[in-house]
Design brief:
The protein is of the alpha/beta class. 40% of the residues lie in helices and 13% in strands. The protein is built from 13 helices and 12 strands. The strands form 2 sheets. Strands 3-2-1-4-5-6-12 form a 7-stranded parallel β-sheet, with helices on both faces. Helix 4 links the parallel strand 2 and strand 3. Helix 2 runs parallel beside helix 11. The N and C termini lie far apart (42 Å). 47% of the residues are buried.
C-alpha cells in the first residue's frame, strides 16, 4: 500500500518523535479508514515532509490528487515521485471536476468545486472563501498553527540565512516588519541569536513578552521613523501578510547604495512591484522555501495533522456553514500527543504555557 511505502521510505530521514501526531493518525486511520472513497484535492506546498501528510490521507482511504501552482513553492523531485506512484498532479486550471473536499493553501483552488467544503491552511486564504460564502475549516485560526509559524517559520528564516552564509547575528541590526505569528517567531529566534531587533508594527498589538526582546518598536504609521530604521538596518525581513508594504515608505533607489539583506517571509510580495525581485533574497518568495525542508517536520507535524482532521470534520459535519474554527478538543488532542511523544515539549512550554 502506498501509505506504508511512503512511511517506510521516509524512515531514513525522520524519527517518529519528529512526527508524533501524523504517525498516530496513520496508525489509527489505516484501521478505521474514515475517508474511504472520498475524492480529496490537497494543495499543501509539496516537499519531502509533506509526504507524511499524504500518507495519512491515503491510509484513511482517500482518493488523493495533489494540487500545485506557480504561486505555491514546491520541490519538483517530490512531485515527480508522487507521479511515479500514480498520484495525479493538477493545477488550478486542470482541477475542473468536483471533489468531495478541497484542502487549500492561500485559496489557490477556491474555484474548484467541493461537495463538503474547503480546508484552508493559511490566514490569508480565508477572506476569499468568506467572499464566496462557502464552508471553510480555517486551520490557521487555532493554537496549533502557532507551533509552525512561531517556532518553525522563525527558525526557517535563520536556517535559510545560514545556508546563504549569514550565521553571526550578534549585534546585527535586524528590522522586522510585522509582529504576528511569523514576525513573533523571527523576534524570538533573533533574540536567542543576539541580534539588535527593531520591529515595525502597530505597537498595542505587540505581546509584552516580545516587546521585551526588541531594542526598538516603531509604529508603522510613523513614516519618518520607519525610514530611519530601514536606513540603519543590516537586514530587513517582512512578515506582515500584506502586499507592497515596503514601497509605501521607500522605492528601489533607497536600497541601491546600501548593503542591506532584504528578505520576505510572507505569501504576498511585501516589497511591491516597484522594487525588483533581484534585490530580494529568493526573488521575493518566502525565504525558507529555498530550503529542501522549509519548516522542520517537528514544527509542522501538528499543523499538517490539523489540516487533515479538518477534512474529516467537514465530511462528518455536512450541515455546518461559514468559517469553522478548529475545535479546542481537536487541538488539545494534538498538543497532548506532541507533548508526550514529540521532540519539542520544552519549546511548546515556551510559546504556549508562557503565552508567547
Amino acid at each position: 500500500m502506498l501509505s506504508e511505502y511512503i512511511l517506510d521510505k521516509l524512515s531514513a530521514y525522520y524519527k517518529v518523535s519528529e512526527f508524533p501526531t501524523l504517525h498516530s493518525m496513520i496508525e489509527d486511520w489505516s484501521h478505521k479508514r474514515p475517508l474511504l472513497g472520498l475524492r480529496i484535492l490537497d494543495s499543501t506546498p509539496v516537499f519531502r515532509n509533506t509526504l507524511l501528510k499524504y500518507s495519512a490521507l491515503l491510509a484513511g482511504g482517500a482518493k488523493l490528487d495533489i494540487g500545485i501552482s506557480d504561486d505555491i513553492s514546491r520541490d519538483d523531485s517530490v512531485v515527480d515521485f508522487l507521479q511515479s506512484q500514480g498520484i495525479r498532479i493538477v493545477t488550478p486550471q486542470e482541477a475542473n471536476e468536483t471533489y468531495d473536499i478541497v484542502m487549500d493553501c492561500g485559496a489557490i483552488f477556491s474555484s474548484t468545486v467541493s461537495r463538503y467544503g474547503y480546508v484552508e491552511l493559511t490566514r490569508s486564504g480565508v477572506p476569499k472563501y468568506e467572499q464566496l460564502g462557502v464552508k471553510v475549516f480555517a486551520a490557521d485560526s487555532g493554537v496549533i498553527k502557532r507551533i509552525e509559524t512561531i517556532l518553525g517559520t522563525g527558525e526557517g528564516y535563520f536556517r535559510a540565512m545560514a545556508e546563504l552564509g549569514y550565521t553571526d547575528w550578534r549585534g546585527a541590526r535586524l528590522t522586522i516588519f510585522g509582529s504576528g505569528k511569523v514576525g513573533s517567531g523571527i523576534i524570538l529566534q533573533a533574540h536567542h541569536l543576539g541580534a539588535n531587533i527593531t520591529v515595525v508594527t502597530d505597537p498595542p498589538t505587540l505581546c509584552q513578552n516580545y516587546r521585551k526582546m526588541c531594542n526598538h518598536v516603531v509604529d508603522y504609521r510613523d513614516t519618518e521613523a520607519v525610514i530611519e530604521a530601514l536606513s540603519k538596518s543590516n537586514a530587513v525581513v517582512t512578515a506582515t501578510g500584506l502586499s507592497s508594504v515596503i514601497e509605501r515608505y521607500v522605492n528601489a533607489d533607497f536600497f541601491s547604495d546600501k548593503n542591506i539583506l532584504l528578505a520576505n517571509m510572507g505569501v504576498e510580495d511585501e516589497y511591491g512591484e516597484s522594487i525588483s525581485s533581484d534585490m530580494i533574497l529568493n526573488h521575493k518568495s518566502a525565504l525558507n522555501f529555498m530550503l529542501e525542508e522549509p519548516t522542520h517536520l517537528k514544527y509542522i507535524d501538528a499543523t499538517m495533522s490539523l489540516h487533515n482532521l479538518g477534512a474529516l470534520w467537514l465530511f462528518e459535519h455536512s450541515d455546518c456553514s461559514g468559517v469553522i474554527l478548529p475545535p479546542s478538543d481537536m487541538e488539545q488532542q494534538l498538543l497532548d500527543i506532541t507533548r508526550e511523544f514529540g521532540e519539542i515539549g520544552d519549546d511548546l512550554k515556551e510559546i504556549l504555557d508562557n503565552n508567547i
